[in-house]
Amino acid sequence: MIKLIGVLIIVVGFALKLDAIGIVIIAGVVTGLVSGISFPQILDILGKTFVANRYMSIFLMLLPVIGILEKNGLKETAGKFIAKIKNATPGKVIMSYGVARTFLAAFDISFGGVAGFVRPVVYPMAVGSIESRGKKISEEDAETIKAMSAGMENVAWFFGQVLFLGGAGLLLVQGTLKGAGYDLDPIKAVKAEIPVAIIAILVASIYYGIIDKKIMKKYPDKKAKSEVK
Amino acid sequence: MKNNFMEVIYFICGFVCFYIVYKTATDKNHKSKVGTIIFWLMLGIIMAFGKYIPPKAVGVLILIMSGAAMSKQVKPGNSPLAPAEYRKKMSDKLGYKIFIPAFTIGVTAIVFAIFLPKLGALVGLGIGTILAAVILMTMTKDSPKSVMNEGQRLLDAVGPLSTLPQLLASLGAIFTAAGVGEVIAGGVQKIVPEGNVFVGIVIYAVGMVLFTMIMGNAFAAFSVITVGIGVPFVLKYGLDPNVVGMLALTCGYCGTLMTPMAANFNIVPVAILEMKDKYGVIKKQVPIAIIMLVVQIFLMYFMAR
Q: Of B9, B59, B288, which is closest to A47 when you measure between CB atoms?
């Protein structure tokens, strides 16, 4: 039972909104020590796993490019582009991205996540759809649109990538079940996920669509009557 | 081959960190020089040279780096975003051409994933980023230095949170080595009655969600919960392992959508998008996750029998 102290530290730490990095480090060291892992061994595990997972920090080299894109008016240009699409709203932009993202994820194709695609392309387009109506977007609504963009990114990627034959998730399930004496048929396993993925995108689209309606009420389309092109 | 490419990419990541160290050191008005320099220097060393340093020494560097972060001594410098007039002027001048470098990053990743699977999307992402930078510099006449300065502006905003995903992965490894999963699975087996398949499915699915939320990683949860709960409470009764296994994993993903422990999906985006509410992304995912959990429990029950 004492091994669960790390879980307790995490739950209490996050509940009290303590420093996230501190919580994780302390939970790891304490769990290791009470379970009979020596301190040098803990350092060893810490170092090995951290180095093996460096790919998670690839955005370190991405962000300079994102920054220079923004400096050169990326968001402003995205707004102009969206202005040409009739009746675009943040919700519609985000939903279109979700569908495309899920479809490509099924082929294990990634756009580059939040740093690589949502911040440079999806979010500016979503905001642009409001600003192109000549309205300034409120900070609160911008926050909501950011959250929905990142949320759609996660939902689409999670439920899309399990449709890929030979994806990491499928391989893990196959390997674990094999160890327990059950053989997996990858085709059947992927088929089982198809309804799940479709429902997931539908649920996300409906939920974000409802929020989008609420937001758009505050930004009526001025140009609707005098549409030029 | 792939590993060599990745080491080059990690070196560039490290170099970006070193640049932040240099800028912080030469910034006369920086509020917290020492802590900020220690943090980015340690991270840079691990990113650039981590593979060549003994793991125990990396562990020490991680503790030093985390110490700087924990004591709140890592602070952003003073590099403002270009003024709105400048951005508008550049937008008018460049027009839609700006989308070429913006899409270059993702498209290169896709091309590598499809045509060069041996190198993979990550190498593509790295090369695409370099390509995008080159295209941008020729288009805008921005210098490499101003590219790096923009990087500092954004990374300063992200700060120490950028290391959380990797720290959590390390925490998961320590949990596994300590046998935390077995303890939890053993506890569940004592409480839950065996024999009812629907109850078994609910326990398996909810167990995946809860354990994923604690570990921050559905993969780690899957191996533990499947052996501890999935097999004795569900699979033993002859349900289709193809359906049960896969859906259990995606039930775990519902947990991923709801936990700050899955930092790379839920917390780092908050920083990258410069949001105010740390849990803003999670809040917009919880309703979806709960609906999908219920949906999947019923799908498992009706599709697997």
A: B59
